[in-house]
Design brief:
This protein is of the alpha/beta class and about 230 residues long. The protein contains 8 helices and 10 strands. Strand 8, helix 6 and strand 9 form a beta-alpha-beta unit. Bound molecules: adenosine-5'-diphosphate (ADP) and magnesium ion.
Length: about 230
């Protein structure tokens, strides 16, 4: 579940100031976050995940009002409720695939569960890669590993940032089907940030938040109040 009202964010150091359209996404729903490069898709995802504090407005996600908890609380909430498939996958190169997934338990303050790690890797079709290092994976395999990591704790929200950006048509269709199937299996709401028209065509029933429509009147001057 996501509900935003008047959500805004201003980067410090002379960066962009962004004000986002309101969103109501029911639990289990799919949202396409569309927009050209630089319109604020990654920023919006980071606000939803509580990785940045909003500059203004109200934000409810996965049962909490973001911004009302302390750092340790929001970290625990994120580890438990947010599955994030970032554009740069951030797999630790020194660790095996299985150990990369085990970091999720460390972040959540939970004991390592190797059976669940194996199950998560199997769910996305890469169980046999558990002992490999990230540099021994293809791009598509690495993305599957990152997806397994994202859904290891059955998150409430699954956020994917440009998941098809570097994929050919067939791999992109596979990745989208896998994302959708995984979200359904977890009962998670799914948000896909993309400027890829193939994604828009592949998900005709998804709710759409189009940041292209923000237009210049919403790209605030830094001096204005958010
Ligand atoms: P998108 O994901 O849609 O490409 P982003 O959310 O990455 O857009 O960026 C939105 C705007 O914020 C852009 O104008 C970008 O240049 C700016 N921006 C992003 N990250 C930073 C940052 N760390 N500092 C300053 N400005 C930033
Ligand atoms: Mg981005």
């Amino acid at each position: 579940m996501i509900r935003t009202r008047g959500l805004a964010y201003a980067y410090a150091s002379g960066g962009a100031a962004l004000r986002f359209p309101d969103v109501d996404l029911p639990q289990g729903g799919t949202l396409l976050l569309r927009g050209r490069s630089g319109t604020g898709k990654s920023t919006w995802l980071s606000l939803i995940a509580g990785l940045r504090g909003a500059g203004g407005g109200d934000l409810f996600a996965a049962g909490v009002q973001i911004g009302t908890q302390r750092g340790a609380e929001i970290d625990a909430w994120r580890a438990r409720h947010i599955g994030f498939l970032p554009q740069k996958l951030h797999l630790s190169s020194a660790l095996s695939v299985a150990d990369n997934l085990a970091l999720v338990y460390f972040a959540a303050g939970l004991p390592r569960d190797d059976a669940a790690i194996t199950q998560a890797l199997a769910r996305v079709g890469v169980a046999e890669l558990a002992q490999r290092k990230p540099h021994q994976l293809s791009g598509g395999q690495a993305q599957r590993v990152a997806l397994a990591r994202a859904v290891l704790l059955s998150p409430t929200l699954l956020l994917a940032d440009e998941p098809t950006a570097s994929l050919d048509d067939e791999a992109a269709a596979d990745a989208l089907a896998l994302l959708q199937g995984t979200a359904v299996a977890c009962g998670a709401s799914l948000v896909i940030a993309t400027h890829d028209q193939r994604v828009v065509r592949a998900l005709p029933d998804a709710q759409v938040l189009d940041l292209n429509e923000i237009g210049p009147q919403r790209m605030l001057d830094k001096r204005e109040q958010l």
